[in-house]
Design brief:
CATH topology of the largest domain: UDP-n-acetylglucosamine1-carboxyvinyl-transferase, Chain
CATH superfamily of the largest domain: Enolpyruvate transferase domain
Largest sheet: 4 strands, mixed
Number of strands: 24
Bound molecules: shikimate-3-phosphate
CATH class of the largest domain: Alpha Beta
Radius of gyration: 22 Å
Oligomer: single chain
Length: 455
């Protein structure tokens, strides 16, 4: 999985990105749809599923646990599950490729079953810390054998019975919250998660949709408290996956910074825990409109229109981070074209994403002429409106899809072409990204593509 051959790609100065597009389904919801389908007796049907490497890895893992996972059409999948306590021991290791969400959530599922499950992944995933998920799972009774520092490869075996816990999540992480809740599904009694900082709530919403007894409230300290009753009778669902706002982000920023552009990204999830980037871009003066707003499956969706804008630098407070954690690389690119300085705070979690994103973004910007300061948990970017003098550098992506996409977007608006060392990794979350951008008028490909203004 996702050990793909490396493919460098060059973005050339472009103009007038125009058109209406739909980006693939939301990655967070797609992982959870397959997992909850596998934990439910009966047939769950999913439409609009993200068919990317990360999600295919989750599908393969759910099959290895005994569920029947089938593709029935484009983006249409069915999952015949076995119930919260019914999974079977996988015959081989579960290869999650590049997928942190898939691996961490599946660890929660595996930990509540009394057999050994082994997790492996690519070089990026094998560097990422798993202790944040393993700590609560150990408290619940699971036994873990892991490489030092709690990294992959690792094996987990659940105890019989496991103990329900009340767990205060020490880092703002929807993955940790979700792993504990998914483990709690197969444990008698109440499993509780306390979140000092609220993170994306797709697991809670989807569990409620599948019929679990789950309550979300607040304690006197203002923390979010989620209480789940174990061993529920889940009911199969029909799930429509909305377009991924974290994928739409790349197109929106391209629409803002490439001259004469006007694009619409259709049917994007507007869950309020995911809209931080839109709020910051609005503060920067972006011409963004939400059209055709609607609701489906308990979520707000809309078409997002982005037109070329004069952006200005802003300060982004640390409190914003949970609602835009995956969007900082592309925000940094928008900031590179804004007037003045943008400073982003509260970025410590970026150090443990698919790459050390703070370092990767700072290095990519610096290699392309942008003045920036990398702090331990902050980034300052001084913009160049119009992009004069920017570009011309090569960007190291470090097996990180969002670094690849962010700098390809930057290359469309810089004065000189920019090359990312590996665009193949984009297939982990956004298959067809380059083709979709090219369809809007972006110049991507070999160095011979004519520059902006050329015939
Ligand atoms: C995700 C949670 C976030 C995010 C990731 C998807 C999820 O990670 O960065 O892309 O689907 O739960 P953290 O939980 O580490 O913040």
């Amino acid at each position: 999985m996702s050990h793909l051959p490396v493919r460098p790609l060059t973005a050339h100065p472009s103009s007038a990105l125009r058109g209406r597009v739909r980006v693939p389904g939301d990655k967070s919801i797609s992982h959870r749809a397959l997992m909850l389908g596998a934990l439910t007796v009966g047939r769950t049907r999913v439409t609009g599923l993200l068919e990317s490497e990360d999600i295919l890895a989750t599908g393969a893992a759910m099959r290895a646990f005994g569920a029947t996972v089938e593709r029935t059409g484009e983006g249409a999948w069915s999952v015949d599950g076995l119930g919260p306590a019914g999974l079977l021991e996988p015959e081989g290791p579960l290869d999650f490729g590049n997928a942190g969400t898939g691996a961490r959530l599946a660890m929660g599922i595996a930990a509540a079953h009394p057999f050994a499950s082994t997790f492996i992944g690519d070089a990026s995933l094998s560097r990422r810390p798993m202790g944040r998920v393993l700590d609560p799972l150990r408290q619940m009774g699971a036994e873990v054998i892991a490489r030092s520092g709690d990294r992959l490869p690792l094996s987990i075996r659940g105890a019989d019975p496991m103990a329900p816990i009340a767990y205060r999540v020490p880092v703002p992480s929807a993955q940790v919250k979700s792993a504990v809740l998914l483990a709690g599904l197969n444990i008698a009694g109440i499993t509780a998660v306390i979140e000092p900082v609220a993170t994306r709530d797709h697991t809670e919403k989807m569990l409620a949709g599948f019929g679990a007894e789950i309550e979300v409230g607040r304690n006197p300290d203002g923390e979010t408290v989620i209480r789940l009753e174990g061993l529920p009778a889940l009911r199969p669902q029909n799930i429509e996956v909305p377009a991924d706002p974290s994928s739409a982000a790349f197109l929106i920023v391209a629409g803002l910074i490439v001259p004469d552009s006007d694009i619409v990204v259709e049917g994007v999830l507007l869950n309020e825990r995911r809209t931080g980037l839109l709020e910051v871009l609005a503060e920067m003066g972006a011409d963004i409109a939400i059209e055709n707003e609607r609701r489906t499956g308990g979520e707000r969706l809309g078409d997002i229109r982005a037109r070329t804008s004069r952006l200005k630098g802003v300060t982004v407070a640390a409190e914003r981070a949970p609602s835009m954690i995956d969007e900082y690389p592309v925000l940094a690119v928008a900031a590179a074209f804004a007037e003045g300085r943008t400073v982003m705070h509260g970025l410590e979690e970026l150090r443990v994403k698919e790459s050390d994103r703070l370092a990767a973004v700072a290095a990519g910007l610096a290699a392309n002429g942008v003045e920036c300061e990398e702090g331990s948990a902050s980034l300052g970017v001084t913009g160049v409106p119009g992009g004069q003098g920017l570009g011309g550098g090569r960007v190291a992506t470090h097996l990180d899809h969002r670094i690849a996409m962010s700098f390809l977007v930057m290359g469309l608006a810089a004065e000189k072409p920019m090359t990312v060392d590996d665009a193949a990794i984009i297939a982990t979350s956004f298959p067809g990204f380059a083709e979709l951008l090219a369809g809007l008028g972006a110049r991507l490909g070999e160095a011979k593509t004519p520059a902006r203004g050329a015939a």
